[in-house]
Design a protein that fits this description.
2 domains; about 40% helix; about 325 residues; alpha/beta; Diaminopimelate Epimerase, Chain A, domain 1; globular; inorganic pyrophosphatase (n-terminal core)
Length: about 325
């Protein structure tokens, strides 16, 4: 079996051969996605390789403190000029080629760096490690393979990736490996207290207004074991908020005593409902999401349902209830 160090070296070799690198991640970027993208952009700069970060959706307000954010282009499609210029594309934290929302990139040579169990190894280089606590942690191996010394800005981005994907080190992926990475990143200049404050204590008022509306939809089913919340485009308008402002709201109902699965329905566009699933313990929501073309982790997954809100509820909630009943 090829080791992680060898795969990290293959990533570095691909970067070294490239003339221009395009870096992207999944739609609705979270801390692991954006932190990893920005850290890899800096690695490319230190390797003398021009690079750009391109995302389909804006980042949530909680990540506005990350260094190098000005390097991110948010666009509905990659411009023909940029597409012609990039001779290597790096997908970070994408268990499928469709996840970034840029089908035009799929014809390019792809480097696939991910930690999802269901990744189909679609790249010319596949650095996939399901045991990794975050893609940000995996990029430490890439920095080592490239003989790049971690900078404070890089450490800030990677620590943010790590702390958000482990739920502040509360999830099951908060392994010794995660804490070893955190130690190294703090030693390199990441400041845990400042990052925690930036992530949690600078919430825009519109997000609180939206939370109030969303939490007003709270439903408990299966004797309190399933929590359901909903957000619509009307709620966004009423709060003056944006789709990215819903990031992490699902963790509020997930925290309710007795809840084993939390479901968040987000209906922002006609005939399209984004569904976030979170679970506790051994309940595997990834399999349920995969049945609808989605994916993720055992305790944190998502999918996009082609239909209206009523249809999405009718299709997905019976499966959620079966998961809880069989647990």
């Amino acid at each position: 079996m090829t080791s992680g160090c060898e795969k990290a070296s293959e990533v570095v070799q691909a970067l070294a051969r490239a003339h221009f690198v395009l870096i992207t991640s999944h739609r609705s970027p979270d801390g692991d996605a954006l932190g990893s993208e920005l850290a890899l952009w800096e690695m490319c700069a230190l390797l003398g390789r021009p690079a750009v970060v391109v995302n389909r959706d804006p980042h949530p307000a909680s990540l506005a403190f990350l260094p190098h954010l000005e390097k991110v282009q948010v666009t509905e499609s990659v411009s023909p000029e940029l597409l012609a210029k990039a001779d290597l594309v790096v997908f970070l934290e994408c268990p499928g080629v469709e996840r970034p929302g840029f089908p035009e990139l799929q014809a390019k040579p792809l480097v696939n760096v991910d930690h999802h169990l269901d990744n189909p190894l679609y790249g010319v280089v596949n650095f996939v490690d399901p045991e990794a606590p975050a893609v940000g942690e995996m990029l430490l191996s890439v920095a080592d393979a490239a003989h790049i010394a971690l900078t404070p800005t890089m450490a800030t981005c990677l620590y943010t990736a790590l702390v958000t994907d482990t739920g502040d080190f509360r999830y099951s992926n908060a392994t010794p490996r995660a804490f070893a990475a955190a130690k190294r990143l703090v030693e390199a200049g990441a400041q845990p207290a400042a990052i925690a404050e930036a992530l949690n204590d600078h919430v825009p008022a519109r997000v609180i207004r939206l939370q109030a509306l969303v939490l007003g939809t709270l439903e408990l089913q299966a004797e309190g074991q399933v929590a359901i919340i909903t957000c619509t485009s009307d709620m966004l308008r009423a709060a003056g908020a944006f789709p990215e402002d819903t990031e992490d709201m699902i963790n509020i109902p997930r925290a309710i005593a007795g809840v084993k699965v939390a479901v968040f329905f987000k209906a922002f566009a006609p005939n399209t409902v984004r569904v976030s699933l979170r679970s506790k313990g051994s309940i595997n929501v990834q399999k349920l999401a995969a049945g609808f073309g989605g994916g993720g982790h055992e305790n944190a997954s998502g999918l996009t349902f082609p239909g209206d809100l009523a249809q999405a509820r009718a299709a997905i909630l019976p499966g959620v209830l079966r998961l809880v009943e069989s647990a």
